[in-house]
Amino acid sequence: MTLSVTVHSDATHQAADAWRRQTSLRRLYTAMGVGLLLVALCATMWFADEANAGHFFDRLPHIFDFLSWLIPKDWNDVWRAMFDIASPHDNGTQEYNFPLGRAYVWGGFYVPEYFELMLTTLNVALVSTFIGFVFAVPFSFIAARNLTPHPVLRHVVKRLMELLRAFPEIVIAGLFAAIVSIGPIAAIIAIGLHSIGALGKLFYEINENIDMRAEEGLTAVGANWFERVRFADLPQVLPNFMSYTLLRIEINVRASTIIGAVGGGGIGEELKLSISRGFGAKTLALVLLLFTTIFLIDQFSAWLRRKLAGEQAFMMGA
Amino acid sequence: MAVMTADQILSIEERYPQVFQRPLHKRFGPLLLFVGTLLYFVYAVWFFNLPQVMRESHWERLPLFLTQWISYDVQPTFPLDTPQIEPKYPRFSVLGADPHPDWVKTNADGSITVLVNGPAKSVTFTKTVATIIANGQTVQVSMISGKPVVSGAIPAWITAHDEEVVADMGFVGEVRVAADRVKVRKRFLGWANFVFDPRSPFFEKSPSEVISLIVSGPELKPGTSNLALAANNIWYNGQWQHGDVWTKLLQTVVMAFLGTLLGGIVAFPLAFFAARNITPSGLLSQVLKRFFDFMRSVDMLIWALFFTRAFGPGPLAGSAAIFFTEIGTLGKTYSEALENIDDKPREGVLSTGANGLLVQRYGVLPEVIPVFISQTLYQWESNTRGATIIGAVGAGGIGLKLWEAMRTNSNWANVFYMVLLILLVVFIFDNISSFLRRRLSRTIHDYNRMQAEQG
């Protein structure tokens, strides 16, 4: 597109000049920014490639080796692995010992191993989200600028939540693995502590945006801080709190899978072992199960969130 | 509060039935929710076998580990069956190869005094008798009968076993006396050898000495300047591995940056085809949206495990894992931002007869670019926080190093050092990201205000 400027007077001329100067300056800045980003991109790519065990272009032709090797001899083995049914390919190795993981509940009725592991992962996520919720709610009222009982307390709680959020989960998991032994409890503590910080931040941001008139009404009748929070503020923010908590459950299912892979038990650990040993059918069964579960949770919580808080529940935040 | 009569209460109840006579599910809903949660917790306690886990846990280790984060100890052993009592140090003692600390004294009569914490907490011993002083008490341990025997009453801070007498002196350390040896553990606050390790020629030199050596000293290693030698010694410090830790930390930062940026670059054009108001084909939009869902829900962990198999362990695998996950996350958020745009600028550009690409460039992009950048920055920030964890499964970065240091249960000071570095990095990147986002939101704000002013 071309822009034609008809010169009427000196003033218009100057204005057009200034506009052109400004535009070219801005274009220069944008170009410089993009150039800088490109340089950083190339440098980091080179760095990541150098530090890696295998290099990108050497490995690229082989990238599908692993995938092809994931393909099981018999596609039915995926289902057999998932439901712990004996495989005709069983040769005594761990790769095909599907029925070994059966956990009998009642007589001949059993829970397949991978479903039990998935249940562990889900329970880790639920319990740790609950821990996060229980602590984040009171913290969020203390940390909110408009509701805090004391400004010093507010800063202390805010810094504490920042620390809990930024502290690497894996360190807490590792520390507690040394105390309560490796397993889901260490994972719950690690993810729970992280959830306190993450939920607390989202919660106090909601608190800071509430309508203060209800609170004023209760102040007028002489309610104390707890009564005001309980009767004026909590009912206003609870739907949003629930919505973010549901979002957190989704995130925590992923987190507990990852922590599981480094010794937190559950499906993550099994998945890591299965992939590193190259058990095609088992890996596919695990991935399929995990994928389905996460998908179902996503859908269910999206539906529930929409019911609870409407479209605003889909704003960014983690 | 004012006291109301029964009539007044009744009249209020009549006026607001929706407050006082709520439907059953509203009245008992919260209670049911509470009871349900409680029941779930009983189940969870049973499921995780909590009582047994708690019985078998070692909570006494927690303060021990935490003190190890900020302190170190030296453990000399004094064998009593040699002609002369000489301290022996573990092979990798922080004191270096030939230590002669001033808290170990050989007295004139051949006995040895170890000052665990000054003379108030110390032990003096010969081959036959040891005198332990702590908490204002003096305890004699005799080794004549072939095993240590405490003479007199045993105070609470001393535990007498058959073969060994253990004197617990609290944080500063402990003394263990057996018939054939005395073992002392002396604890110091701080981190030992943080700058130079015992192999370095600069070891145990004061900062001023080191500086004068670097500035004007003779070359300690011929052919290398003292400055280069010092830098080399710090970088390759055997205990703290500064070089390795910093490189791994840089890898983690690079992984987050590269993964998020590449994810954004790929998601950017795709989002236009996924946004229902921009793409001409509904099928394409649906396919792309499901593709984004897939990329997100396969999970960073699985991508990380997959790419470590494909590329080998390292930051390339980690970057690729974040990249794949981010295509899904950013693709979804980008396309949602596109679906929420104001259609008027686009119609305006369209009315001038511009082609498809120009409409996007001048009608759509100015509106969404700040939102895109803000969301990308947010993801970058959150990935910097999260990238440590996929490192532990072999995807490069500081995660694996952290996990290994923790698994040995001895390098807790190293763990703390790395944690501090990670926190510092997260803090810096959080601030950069939120500063940039604030600037951006101000731009959006200004833009909206100008729009409003122009009507």
Description:
The complex is a heterodimer of chains A (318) and B (455). With 318 residues, chain A is mostly helical. Chain A is flat. A two-stranded antiparallel ribbon of chain A has the order 1-2. In chain A, helix 8 runs antiparallel to helix 10 (225-264) and helix 10 (225-264) runs parallel beside helix 11. Chain A contains twelve helices and two strands. By secondary structure, chain B is of the alpha+beta class. Among the domains of chain B are: 76-90 and 126-188, no CATH class; 242-454, Orthogonal Bundle (MetI-like fold), CATH 1.10.3720. Helix content of chain B is 57%, strand content 13%. Chain B is built from 15 helices and twelve strands. Chain B has helices at 6-15, 17-20, 24-47, 50-56, 61-70, 207-216, 226-235, 242-274, 282-297, 300-311, 315-339, 344-351, 356-395, 398-407, 412-453; strands at residues 71-74, 77-79, 104-106, 112-117, 121-125, 129-134, 137-142, 149-151, 158-160, 164-168, 173-178, 181-189. In chain B, the strands form two sheets. In chain B, strands 1, 2, 9, 10, 11 and 12 form a six-stranded antiparallel beta sheet that branches. Chain B has a six-stranded antiparallel beta sheet with strand order 3-4-5-6-7-8, with no helix packed on it. In chain B, strand 11 (173-178) and strand 12 (181-189) form a beta hairpin. The radius of gyration of chain B is 34 Å and the shape is extended. Chains A and B meet through helix 1, helix 3, helix 5, helix 6 and helix 7 of A and helix 3, helix 4, helix 5, helix 8 and helix 10 of B.
List keywords for this structure.
heterodimer, A: 318 residues, mainly alpha, 12 helices, 2 strands, 74% helix, 2% strand, B: 455 residues, MetI-like fold, 6-stranded antiparallel sheet, PhnE/PtxC (chain A), cell membrane (chain A)
Write the SSE topology:
The complex is a heterodimer of chains A (318) and B (455).
Chain A: H1 10-51, H2 56-59, H3 63-70, H4 76-83, E1 103-106, E2 109-111, H5 113-143, H6 151-166, H7 169-180, H8 184-207, H9 213-220, H10 225-264, H11 267-277, H12 280-309
Antiparallel strand pairs in A: 1-2
Helix pairs in contact in A: 4-12, 5-8, 5-10, 6-8, 7-8, 7-10, 8-10, 9-10, 10-11, 10-12, 11-12
Chain B: H1 6-15, H2 17-20, H3 24-47, H4 50-56, H5 61-70, E1 71-74, E2 77-79, E3 104-106, E4 112-117, E5 121-125, E6 129-134, E7 137-142, E8 149-151, E9 158-160, E10 164-168, E11 173-178, E12 181-189, H6 207-216, H7 226-235, H8 242-274, H9 282-297, H10 300-311, H11 315-339, H12 344-351, H13 356-395, H14 398-407, H15 412-453
Antiparallel strand pairs in B: 1-12, 2-12, 3-4, 4-5, 5-6, 6-7, 7-8, 9-10, 10-11, 11-12
